[in-house]
Amino acid sequence: MAKSKRIGTQNLGRFYTEGKVRNRREWRGLADTAYDYSRWLYNWFNMARIVLVKPRNIKAMFRYRWMGNYLAVPMMVDRHTQGLRGEHLRICHAEQDIIIEDVAKLLDKLFRADRRIGNDTEFNKKVVLIDENAMQSVMMGFPGIVPLSREIASTYIPVLLNQRAALHYIDIAQEYGLAGDVCPMPEAEAGLVIDDDAPIVGCCAIQCNTTCDGSLMGNGVVYKRLTEEGIPTHQLAVPLRHREDDVQEYAAQEIRNAIAFIEEHTGEKWDWAHYFECAKRVNFATRSRLEWMEMSKTDYPQVFGSNLALYTETNYMVVNGRIPLFNEADKKISALAQKAYKKKKLVANEYRHRAIVWGVQSHYYMDFLVWLLNCWGIIPLTDMLSMVSTKIIAEEDTPENREQAIYDIAWLTENMLMRNRTHGGYKVLLDELWEFVEEFNADMVILWEHMSCKALDGMHGQFEEKAREKGIHLVWVSHDLFDPRVISRQGVRDQINSYMRTVMREEPVDPSLEVLSDEESW
Amino acid sequence: MAKKMKKNLLKLLLKLVLIVVGFIGVTFVVYFYNLDMKLTSAMEPILTHFYDKVKRDQHL
């Protein structure tokens, strides 16, 4: 298998401590350390400029429990840049830095609108609260409206920053008698609302029928509180059998209804010129993602793992072509990837296996993908949540395309991250996995088994049967998404370690990463 | 006169260089030894103390 030698990438485990943070940052050679340092400085400067200089945001820091997790932002970047050098380090920063800036702006807008903090009533008239599980494509034709998702800021991102971020809210939800065997993500969102820890924003809200029992339960709790706060809420009910032709008209009508609801409550009108401008950017992002995936099918993949996953989650689900800066990042990433590809560069010291990562991944351990590569030489070529729609949508403003656009928005909404695989029949979850295995020339499937996700757990046997038939190494990795008390980070790693040692009879590429003392770590 | 101005300008430049080098030196030490994260991790319990004191309308 391919090998390369890069400065200081052995023994990455030596940076881990038993506390919350690492003992020091990596020495990556002069040029790359200087570059990483400059980006660290830039990120601190950006966070200070957008968030920390405003008194209302400081007030929010002391009001909302989840805000404390944002202290760990630079550490999140360090986790995802672990072992990276040259173009790959720059690709990671191109993604992470723009996401940090985008989230900082989200926080600033949230607190500006929040009735408890900024209480800017004029601004609030143009704010639409969007369910974290809803694609924001329905906002592509509303340039004058500010769509905000408080769940993204309060639960989704904090768990990427700090593995224990959601535990308080999960416990609160269960103290109030909500079921403990549902997905911890919607449970934490419900707990946040019960605990009165969600900013009160928006002139109206859009909720989406999401993917599981937990989400339906959580949305009920959130809906009740929104009603008490006087925020009218629309239910965007998207069909689950999204590959069937006969549901598309219904899905399109749901989009028309949502647009009419937003127009009614904000006084804004749908702007076709702006919509098609965004559609062009959505297509550009799709083409860029396809280009990166084509590279991943060769011996020299360049954009994969958490670099692909975290960026796709943000760009595909939240941005939807509404922020031009993301197209600039797409261009930068493609240029860097092409440069590295031409030089046949490897991202890690050694490549041994090519894997597709499937299932709902653990959020308290997203940097597992980097670990797979550095510890065992397993390339996480792509993951389930990155395998979203690659359809090119209508982008020219014509009368026919205006009708088509409604269907395109519906298609994107139906193909939200996770929903497009966990619902829609066994073809999208099971059959297409094996098609991707062939396309990407993978010899291994890492299958996340999210213990509380009934949608996936029901297919356990069928995955195993097919993997045996095809002779593919299938490695199950159990976890509980937001709750590391059920299965810890080391518990996650041990499942890979024991497979690699007992079945594959291999020794780790970097033995210092095999067992890590990060139980208390952010 | 011109000589004096040149001298002052050089002094100013030197000061600027020293400030920039000092800033880079200090921040690089903070960066490399992860002192920013060590400080923020020490702040977490203080913030938790405030969060526990916030009055809340806690209900289902």
How would you describe this protein?
The complex is a heterodimer of chains A (about 525) and B (about 60). Chain A has a 4-stranded parallel beta sheet with strand order 2-1-3-4, with helices on both faces. A 4-stranded parallel beta sheet of chain A has the order 6-5-7-8. Chain A has about 525 residues and is α/β, with parallel strands linked by helices. Chain A has one domain (about 10-515). Chain A is built from 20 helices and 8 strands. Chain A has helices at about 30-50, 55-65, 75-80, 85-115, 120-125, 150-160, 165-175, 185-195, 215-230, 250-265, 270-295, 305-320, 325-340, 370-375, 400-415, 420, 425-440, 455, 460-470, 490-505, and strands at about 125-130, 145-150, 205-210, 235, 355-360, 380-385, 445-450, 475-480. The longest helix of chain A has 28 residues, at about 85-115. Chain B has about 60 residues and is an all-alpha fold. Chain B is built from 2 helices and no strands. The longest helix of chain B has about 30 residues, at about 1-30. In chain B, about 5% of the residues are buried. Classes of the chains: A alpha/beta (about 525), B mainly alpha (about 60).
Number of domains of chain A: 1
What would the average pLDDT of chain A be, to the nearest integer? 94
Order of strands across the biggest sheet of chain A? Answer: 2-1-3-4
Shape of chain A: globular
The count of helical stretches of chain B stands at 2
Mean pLDDT of chain B: 94
Main pleated-sheet profile of chain B = none
Name the biggest interface.
Answer: A-B, 35 and 23 residues
Spatial gap, N to C terminus of chain B: 79 Å
Unreliable residue stretches of chain A: none
Poorly predicted runs of chain B: none
Structural class of chain B: mainly alpha
Give the C-alpha Rg of chain B.
Answer: 24 Å
Question: What are the main properties of this structure?
Answer:
heterodimer; A: alpha/beta; 52% helix; 8% strand; B: 60 residues; mainly alpha; 83% helix; 0% strand
Give the helices and strands, then pairings.
The complex is a heterodimer of chains A (522) and B (60).
Chain A: H1 30-52, H2 55-63, H3 73-80, H4 86-113, H5 121-124, E1 127-130, E2 146-148, H6 150-161, H7 167-175, H8 184-194, E3 204-208, H9 213-228, E4 233-236, H10 248-266, H11 272-296, H12 306-319, H13 325-342, E5 353-358, H14 368-376, E6 378-383, H15 399-414, H16 419-422, H17 426-439, E7 444-450, H18 454-457, H19 460-470, E8 473-479, H20 489-503
Helix pairs in contact in A: 1-4, 4-12, 4-13, 6-8, 7-8, 8-9, 10-15, 11-12, 11-13
Chain B: H1 2-32, H2 35-53
